[in-house]
Each structure stands twice: as structure tokens, then as C-alpha cells.
Amino acid sequence: MMTCNRQLTLIAFLFASALPLLSLGNDNSVKGSRPNIVVVLCDDLGRGDLGCYGNKIIQTPNLDKLASGGILFTDCYSSSPVCSPSRAGLLTGRNPNRTGVYDWIAGAMYLKSEEITIAEQLKKAGYQTGMFGKWHLNSQFNSDKQPTPGDQGFDHWFATSNNASPSHENPKNFVRNGKRTGEIEGFSAYIVANEFNNWVKALDKKESPFFAYVAFHEPHEPIASDQQLVDKYKDKSKVHGQDLYFANVSQINVAVGNITAFLKENNLEENTMVFFTSDNGPETWMRYPGAWRSHGTPGDVEGAELRGMKLHMTEGGIRVPGILYWPAKIKEARIEQTPVCAIDLFPTLCELAGVAQPSDRKIDGESFIPLLNNKEFEREQPLFWFYYNALSYTTMAMRKGDFMMLARRTGEHYMPGTGFTPERMVSIKEIKPRSYELYNLHDDVGQTRFVQEIYPNVFQSMKAEIDRLFADVQKEAPVWTNDDY
User: Fold this and answer.
1) Separation CA 246–CA 65 (nearest Å)
2) Structural domains present in the chain
């Protein structure tokens, strides 16, 4: 595994001392002062797969450049350790269980029309909105039976339901604003980046800023990689399929480079905020037969390997890359150790756009704008995750400061993607937390040692808090019925 400490130390040396950032002030709603916003979400990209997070093999110079000119978050988290709930959390700012998106979507679940997305809020502030790539927030895609991206705030959408098919090379299942495109030549990441560039090119950029949600399919299986990139890793591949995975991550790097180069060429780079992240930790190699190319890594922190991967309610399942690049505001790059989460994007972007958050629902994320001003960011509510079908024996987690509490749940265990038939849904309202574990991530990021006996007061306090948060989320969590199926 890659050791991140030496790499981060090198980055810190190259960045030099971080100077105070420009203040965002109180006039974010003033026309012309608000940034364009691009949220880039990868699929199954491991925290340890990028050069700026310590990888010595995979070449990601465009992403490393964003990190060396912006903020690199060491403790960035996804909303969930699996795809669909993670996307629901990012777009709504809410714990995904509140929305009823409990697992990757293959049946009844979908993001309901009453949920409010970032795109819907930013439209209220005059933003032009676009969605590009993987949606995976309904089972009946491009149908009037379930909301499409166009129903949830996106003026322009170019998307697939789940993976690009029949392959991420020359896909045939993209839909543009409700109309199927047919086969498109090329690789998915390049296709998505090109659609974004063409959309921005056609916008009236003087009229209002834009918000884009760019959701790459890479490096999710079935991996399809540009042969020119694969050739670069032939001599570095020690296991069958590694060269394809390494090239797939580089493919993301090229696509992001195409986007940022376009922004620069069109004088849009300066006041465009780009936030780059992943939906969960990396896929486990050979977890299923088609995953023979999945050679991602959750990475190391100061020599300690993050525990678990995708589908696990441990650090390796939810700690992901997080890079924020915004030249107009971030004048000196830095490494930021304060925890942030994808659910924080909703309130953060609302504040940047000068639009109020919805007052009729619980928003679990919190605005991290203080960090953009190089100030302290203290949460009112700890970060909390619950994944009903986690592969790990623990199914819920809560982070408060340096401490992470994990817990199991009562009831029968189901494998991911299998636990939400109507007959089983009643358990959503019956299960309870149990078997609590406390870890000090400052001393043990690999989560190898219980510390409840060392910190009994912290343990009791956090146990009460995780019980309260779980009960609050459980109360709102909807039950899908036979009619939904």
C-alpha cells in the first residue's frame, strides 16, 4: 500500500506556508460575484489512487495540480459507503436514509420528487444547471413514473441510469434531456467531459453563473480504458488487470484536464469552484467475477492502512479524496485536516449562491465556508452514517473530533442489494444500535484498537449521541411498499 505521509509532507513543502484566503464577505448573492460551481464525483475511486494522496504509480498530474493550487482535504468523507445513497446524500445534504435510498438501487427505491436537490436550490438563485454522467437515483430511468434529473433541478441532463452500457467504451445508453442518444464513440469520462464543455460553451455566461454535477462512471466495473493509457502501465502491472485499472484512473485525470483546460481557455477558471471527490471507497478485487480489474486502494495515512473498502462502514469505505480548487478565492494552497463530508456541499453551495436552505426538513450537512476563509469550522452535529446492508459487521458510524464510534444493528443481516423486498422493509423501523466500538483516529486511523476503557466519558457521551441520531433518522426513513415495487 502507498504511504501517504511522505507525499503529503512533500506537498506541504511545495505549497509553503498557507496565507489567509480572501474573505467571501456577505455579498455572495450579488450578481456577478458568485462563483460557477463544478462538483466532480467519481465512482469507486479509492483515496489512495491519486498522486496527491501518495500513489507512486498512477499518473494524475491534472488532479495533483488542482490539489497544489487549492485545498486538499485529508479527512473528506462520502455520504455512504455505496453508490446510490452516497449520491442522494450529496445532492440533498441529508442523511440518505431520510430519503429512503438505503442501498444501491435495483428495485423500488428512488429519490422522491419531494426531496430538494442542490440544483433546485441554486436555480432559485438564478444558476444555470447541468448534470452529466451517472445518475443511479431511480430504477425506472427516463420514465414519467419516477423523477428524472430534469425533474430535480437540472436544466440540461446527459446521463445513464447506472453504468454506461454495454461498456464504458462506445456506450449506447446515454439519454440527453429525455431522448436516447444511441451509440457514442469514445470512453465515458471523455464523453461526459465533452458534453459539459459543449453545454458551458452554449450558455449565456453573462446572464448568470452555472452549476454542474459531473458524475464519472470510472473507475467502476466494467472497466474500459484507453489503450494509450494502458500501455503506460504494462511494465507496472503485477496482477492481471492492474494496468487497466491504473489507466482508468488516469482516464479520469485526462477528462478533468479537458474540463479545466476548457475553463481556462474561456476565461472561466478564475471564478469557478471545482470540488472533486468519490462516491465511496474502492471496490474489492474479485468481490464478484466481473471485478477482476478492481485494483483500487483506500490508501495509507502516516503508514497506517485505512480499514475496509466499498460497502464497509469503516474508514476505507467512506474516507475518500476531496480537492477544492477556486483560484479567485484560494490564493495559497494548503492541506486541510478538518473533516468534511459530501452532505456538507448542499449547505455550503447554498451559502455561496446566497440562497436559504429549505426550512421544512432536516439538513444534516453544515456549511464549511469558514474553512475557505482559513478559519475554524466546528460542527453543531457530529457526522453520522448508517448503511443497513454493510459488508462489515458494523453498520453505523459517527465522527466527533478525533473520535469515531462504530456500532452494529439488531436484526437479520442481508447482503448489499438484497435486503429491501417489501417483506423485509418493516425492519427499517424496528432495528436498534448495539455493540458499540470507540476509536481515536488521531492515534489509530487504521481502527485496530478499542479505546472505550481509556475514554469512558467520551464513550458514554458518544453512545448516547449515536443512539439519538439513529432514532432521528429512523423516524423519518420511509418504508417502501408493494405498490412501489
Assistant:
1) 18
2) 34-372 (3.40.720.10), 383-476 (3.30.1120)
